[in-house]
Amino acid sequence: MEHLQADASDPEDGIPSFAQEPPRQPSVWLRQWIEEAAHAGEGEPTAMALASTGAQGPAVRFVLCKEVNERGVCFFTNLDSVKGQQLRARPEAAIAFHWPIVGRQVRIEGRVEPVAVEDADAYYQTRSRLSRLGAWASQQSRPLAERQQLLDAVETFDAKYPSDDIPRPPHWSGFQLVASRWEFWQQCPGRLHQRWTLAMGQDGWRAWQLFP
User: Fold this and answer.
1) Could you tell me which residues come within 8 angstroms of residue 107 by beta carbon, excluding any fewer than 6 positions away?
2) What are phi and psi of 202, to 5 degrees?
3) Which of 12, 30, 179, 196 lies 20 to 30 A from 106 at CA?
4) 1-117+174-212: CATH topology
């Protein structure tokens, strides 16, 4: 799995205008927009709002997109967190990217499925040492009596794994969102925005425009 890297270096002059016809593969379009958002100076160009649903109702939070592929996007999390539990119980989600500098949004809807074990292992090893220790130490979404409790847990696992060979926790992995619908939105003057929607048909992605 080749993970997405948002490189804000070597910016280009200006942002290309909204495409009049979308590419046959929407993931190509998303990759281009993430790159252009990074070049324009967006602080977290791979940040996306992730919405899921559970017994207590809907929930939304921001996560980082770590891969864009032909099927959709991938992200990683603690499987015991609220989102992890919701996504496993009801494997469907919606995500949204927003880049205010370039005036663009992308929304994606679809089902979710776990990433392969080897892909989770590979990405986990690219994280910083502190982030890998944090994956062990954090009981994500559970009540925390005081911050020192978390810091003490990090120290405990730091002592347990003194070398850089820190195994991936069994409760930490990733999800692939398998897109069934995409929407690309470009801000325009007078709120006459441009919107393209793409949905999977029998012969590939079908695309049409929407009123703003």
Assistant:
1) 94, 95, 96, 97, 182, 183, 185
2) -65, -30
3) 12
4) Pnp Oxidase; Chain A (2.30.110)
